[in-house]
Amino acid sequence: GAVVSQHPSWVICKSGTSVKIECRSLDFQATTMFWYRQFPKQSLMLMATSNEGSKATYEQGVEKDKFLINHASLTLSTLTVTSAHPEDSSFYICSAQSKDWYTGELFFGEGSRLTVL
Amino acid sequence: AQTVTQSQPEMSVQEAETVTLSCTYDTSESDYYLFWYKQPPSRQMILVIRQEAYKQQNATENRFSVNFQKAAKSFSLKISDSQLGDAAMYFCAYRIYIIQGAQKLVFGQGTRLTINP
Q1: B109 touches chain A (CB under 8 A)
Q2: Per the CB < 8 Å rule, is A97 touching B103?
Q3: Does A19 touch chain B (CB under 8 A)?
Q4: Which secondary-structure segment (H or E) carries A2?
Q5: How many Å apart are CA B82 and CA B25, to the nearest integer?
Q6: pLDDT by residue (tens digit) across B18-53?
Q7: How far apart are CA B83 and CA B11, in angstroms?
Q8: Using alpha carbons only, what angle is made at residue B91 by residues B66 and A81, rounded to the nearest 5 degrees?
């Protein structure tokens, strides 16, 4: 199957700083990428959908100024958590949809664990 | 709105036995995709099996099979000959079409499966 890579896999930062997480599709072009947040022992919550070259669409309740998403190319999307606070600590997962979206499958990255001190 | 419900927060099974995880969903669409994803301790989301709603035949992937009851909006996963490596969180998911041919997944709450040796 297609490969999606996230970096970093884990990051620790101080409160008030910004953290950037990258999501790359390694062997296919991702027209759409998705960012999820997962709290311990809970399901994945969709944060936003990003399409290459356009603004991301955020789910209700997700602060777009807090979670900046950029999808500058067909293989890269980034999530920047700005002015991070301890409550932003979570597991963030990206997924990517190829041009052949009708096959029904999304490909997931390995996830990034953010800890804000 | 489409919703996905997994009523079993936890399940356990003896190694080599069979276990069934339940999932129900709500939708007004007639054609859609349903998925089962596995999330092992590594947190990587792995596609287990998918079902296209217009196909009456239940999907099968080796030891994994589904019981798709469209009228009842039920989509259960059966794991035969359970192995220790099957231990994971299992998420049922429904695909929603969004604009411009993109899709997004709605996940159930998850079922934690334990395999007893």
Answers
A1: yes
A2: yes
A3: no
A4: none
A5: 25
A6: 999 999 999 888 888 899 999 999 899 999 999 998
A7: 14
A8: 155
Q: How far is A11 from chain B (nearest CA, A)?
A: 16
Gyration radius of chain A's alpha carbons: 13
- A9: region left, alpha or beta (phi > 0 left; psi from -120 to 50 alpha): alpha
d(CA A86, CA A56) in angstroms, rounded, equals 24
Nearest by CB to A43, from B33, B52, B109: name it: B109
| Residue from B14, B9, B5 nearest B80 by CA | B14
What pLDDT digit, counting tens, does each position of B67-104 carry? 999 999 999 999 999 999 999 999 999 988 766 666 78
Query: What is the Cα A92 distance to its own chain's centre?
Result: 6
Residues A80/A95, Cβ–Cβ less than 8 Å: no
pLDDT digits (tens, 9 = 90+) for A69-112: 998 888 999 999 999 999 999 999 999 987 666 665 788 999 99
For residue B69, the SS3 value is: strand
Instruction: Supply B109's token pair.
Output: 């709450």
